[in-house]
Amino acid sequence: MELKISNITKKYGDKIAVDNVNVTLENGVCALLGANGSGKTTLMRMIAGVLGNTKGSISLDGRNIEILDSAYRNVLGYLPQNFGCYKDFKVKDFLLYMCALKGLDGKFAKKRCEEMLLKVGLENVSNKKIGALSGGMKQRLGIAQALLNDPTILILDEPTAGLDPKERIRFRNLICELSKDRIIIYATHIVSDISYIADRVLLMKAGRIVADGSTEELLNIVKGKVWSVDIMRNELESYQNKYSVGAISDSKIKDVNVRIVSDVKPDEKAIEALPDLDDVYLYYFGEVAEVENSN
User: What's the gap between Cα 178 and its chain centre?
Assistant: First the structure.
C-alpha cells in the first residue's frame, strides 16, 4: 500500500499553511514532528480528506483520493486534534453511533465495538457517560472510534495532548501494536511520543518538510554538533543568548552543566555528546521540545 502526497499546498488568503509538501508513505509509523503552528494539523486534515487543498494531489495506490471518495474513507481512521464527542452518550452507545456513520451495522457493529473496548481497555466503563471519563479514557475512546472500520490508514493528530505519562506509555504501546500492517501518521510536537515507535520522522517547519528520515538518519544530521559543558551559573544567560541551549543540570565540577547544539564548539572545555531526537528538534526549531506532563 502506498499513500502519495504530491506538491500539496494550502493557502488561506496570503498565508501559506502548507507549502509544496511531497511525501510517499508505506506501512509503519510515520511521525510528523513540529512546533505548534508548523502546519501539521492542516496537512493531516487534507490527508484525512476533510479539508481541500489549494494545489497538488493525494493518491492511494495510484488513485486520487478525491476520485476514490467513499472507498478512501472506508480504509481511513482519523483521530483529530480536538476530538469532540457527546458527553451524555454512554461509551458503548457512542461507538455504536460511530459504527452507523461508518456504514457498519447489525451484529458485526456490536461485536466490533466490544473488540475495540477491550483493545483500548475501556470494557469496564462501557456503560458510563463520556462526560464522566478522564482525559486519558476519552483519548482511548477516540482511538477506538478511529479503529472501528479496521482502517489501513490511521491518522492521529496530537493524540496524547493532556495525557499523563502512564497514559502516554499505554497509548504508544497500542500504536506500536497497530503499526504492523497499516500506515499510521502520527503528528505531535512532543519528541518523547515518537522516539521509540516511529519508523520514519518528518520534521515540519513553516509549512514545509525540512527533514525526512529514520531516527538514526536524523541523529546523523546533528552528529558532531551536540556539546556538553560545565559553566558557572552566572554564565548561563550569556550562553543562552549565544547558543541553542537544551538540557540544563547540576554539575559536579562547576554550578551547572549545559547541553548545547551548535555547528561550532562553544567552549574549549566542551565535550562532544551523543545526539538524541531532542537535539534534532532544537537544531531545526531553535527551542527545546515539550516534555511529558508529569501531573
Answer: 15
What does the H/E/C string look like for the chain?
CCEEEEEEEEEECCEEEEEEEEEEECCEEEEEECCCCCCHHHHHHHHCCCCCCCEEEEEECCEEHHHHCHHHHCCEEEECCCCCCCCCCEHHHHHHHHHHHCCCCHHHHHHHHHHHHHHCCCHHHCCCEHHHCCHHHHHHHHHHHHHCCCCCEEEEECCCCCCCHHHHHHHHHHHHHHHHHCEEEEEECCHHHCCCCCCEEEEEECCEEEEEECHHHHHHHCCCCEEEEEECHHHHHHHHHHCEEEEEEECCCCCEEEEEECCCCCCCCCEECCCCHHHHHHHHHCCCCCCCCCC
Closest CA to 86 of 99, 97, 75: 97
Q: Which residue has the cell 502546519?
A: 39
Cβ proximity of 155 and 44 under 8 Å: yes
Phi/psi at 7 (5° precision)? 55, 35
Do 285 and 35 touch, CB atoms closer than 8 A? yes
Q: Which three cell numbers stand for residue 123?
A: 470494557
Is there a contact between 187 and 156 (Cβ–Cβ < 8 Å)? Answer: yes
Q: Which of 14, 4, 36 is nearest to 205 (CA)?
A: 36
pLDDT tens profile 230-288: 999 999 999 999 999 988 998 887 889 999 999 999 989 999 999 999 999 999 988 66
* Cα dihedral: 163, 167, 172, 175 (round 10): -100
- Alpha-carbon gap, residue 219 to 212, rounded angstroms: 11
* CATH number, domain 3-219: 3.40.50.300
Per-residue model confidence as pLDDT tens digits over 182-235: 999 999 888 888 888 899 999 999 999 999 999 999 999 999 999 999 999 999
